[in-house]
């Protein structure tokens, strides 16, 4: 049960990233290169947590 909490917590925290992505797509919000870099870093971190759980 505790293993799942390690994966679920970052996914719940990533909802804000999806909000930013959706606002860019649907509301045409302008994002700076810094925003895109941080989105990539967060998504990469979530992917690493998913892979770490597999090992």
From TrEMBL:
<comment type="similarity">
    <text>Belongs to the EamA transporter family.</text>
</comment>
<feature type="transmembrane region" description="Helical">
    <location>
        <begin position="34"/>
        <end position="52"/>
    </location>
</feature>
<feature type="domain" description="EamA">
    <location>
        <begin position="4"/>
        <end position="49"/>
    </location>
</feature>
<feature type="transmembrane region" description="Helical">
    <location>
        <begin position="6"/>
        <end position="27"/>
    </location>
</feature>
<keyword id="KW-0812">Transmembrane</keyword>
<protein>
    <submittedName>
        <fullName>EamA family transporter</fullName>
    </submittedName>
</protein>
<dbReference type="InterPro" id="IPR000620">
    <property type="entry name" value="EamA_dom"/>
</dbReference>
<dbReference type="InterPro" id="IPR037185">
    <property type="entry name" value="EmrE-like"/>
</dbReference>
<dbReference type="Pfam" id="PF00892">
    <property type="entry name" value="EamA"/>
</dbReference>
<keyword id="KW-1133">Transmembrane helix</keyword>
<keyword id="KW-0472">Membrane</keyword>
